[in-house]
Design goal:
This protein is α+β, with helices and mostly antiparallel strands. 34% of the residues lie in helices and 29% in strands. The protein is globular and about 75 Å long.
């Protein structure tokens, strides 16, 4: 989803928040960091942005009153993007808001990094973004270095692993009137103390435009074929691959999704169609999604998700058969004498 190969880290402020419920305090730095080292910005970019490379869900800010300006983070970010608030002042306000949201006894204290990035790319659009990151868990690292013809061993406690970002969000400077496009991660467990990051601090909701709906629908279809159908029908692996191929063909050829047309063209079976609609309803309830029965498909998302619809038939460790269509030209059999399964493939000429 996120691309940052042309991005740069332009500003960074670091603060610290404790747990308000435990009477711990917050510490605000007096000024932003100056990054003169050539290596450190690259390490920070890796620490901050690599975890977002595989994030699929795009959120937006919201408020229960429907007044976006009452969402503190939206308000601060908008003021900054509009040029009405200096970066460091914005970072302090965001940190204070995080402190006020830290109201569970198990929430850990930690450093808060507020960053500005230039030229990040999301869904084909290049723009700038504000990042909010929190590191809670520390580790001990060994250091080995040469000294006077030998090696010296040392260690550093309370260090941060740049491959393990605990919490983060990116506020991408686009779709302002809808609450921006927001990416969020929380690597802690899913217990009640972890919920505060998205629900209390960020106050975000999964976006429901055609990009998000297309991605959710394709995940739904993949799970339906791989899991649900197998529980109800006896299906060969070739039949499942054929169904995935027909599903992918529908997404590539159609500009809009129509639930009844999809079930008729792809599934072609009343029982399977009824099962799909029931599974769609359960899927939406389980993941708190709303996938419409009719919407415009996003070609960009279809292209990106196509790699998940694998059409490969793997036979032991000897053969991989790629099936792209015409299910009727492949037949499965069993050789009694050899005690092994086999496939027969029909074709007109070799390519």
């Amino acid at each position: 989803m996120l691309s940052y190969f042309e991005a740069s880290l332009t500003e960074l402020s670091v603060h610290r928040v404790g747990n308000k419920l435990l009477d711990e305090h917050f510490i605000l730095s007096e000024s932003p960091l100056t990054l003169n080292d050539e290596v450190l910005p690259k390490l920070l970019m890796q620490f901050f942005l690599v975890p977002f490379e595989k994030v699929q869900e795009v959120y937006h800010f919201m408020h229960s009153s429907d007044d976006l300006l009452l969402n503190e983070l939206f308000n601060y970010a908008k003021s900054y993007f509009d040029g009405d608030l200096h970066f460091h002042e914005m970072s302090k306000r965001m940190t204070k808001h995080l402190y006020e949201s830290s109201n569970h006894p198990k929430i850990k204290a930690g450093e808060v990094y507020i960053a500005h990035f230039d030229r990040v790319q999301l869904e084909g659009e290049v723009t700038d973004a504000v990042g909010i990151f929190k590191s809670e868990n520390k580790e001990t690292y060994l250091k080995v270095y040469p000294e006077q013809g030998a090696f010296k061993l040392d260690y550093e406690e309370e260090a941060i692993n740049i491959h393990k970002l605990d919490k983060g969000c990116l506020i991408v400077n686009t779709a302002t009137e809808l609450g921006y496009k927001v990416l969020a991660i929380d690597q802690t467990n899913k217990s009640s103390e972890a919920v505060y990051w998205k629900d209390h601090f960020l106050q975000i909701k999964i976006r429901n435009d055609n990009h998000q709906q297309t991605g959710n629908l394709m995940q739904l279809c993949k799970h339906f074929v791989d899991d649900k159908l197998e529980e109800t029908f006896e299906m060969e692996r070739t039949d499942k691959i054929d169904l995935l191929n027909r599903t992918m063909t529908y997404f590539k050829e159609k500009e809009t999704f129509e639930l009844d047309a999809f079930t008729e063209e792809v599934l072609g079976n009343e029982r399977a169609a009824s099962l799909f609609k029931e599974y769609k309803s359960d899927f939406q309830n389980e993941f708190d999604l709303d996938i419409a029965d009719h919407f415009e498909l996003s070609g960009q998302v279809v292209k990106k998700q196509a790699k998940n619809f694998k059409s490969v038939l793997k036979l032991d460790k000897n053969f991989h058969i790629y099936i792209h269509g015409k299910r009727e030209l492949i037949e499965k059999g069993y050789d009694e004498e050899k005690g092994m399964h086999y496939y027969t493939l029909y074709f007109e000429k070799e390519q």
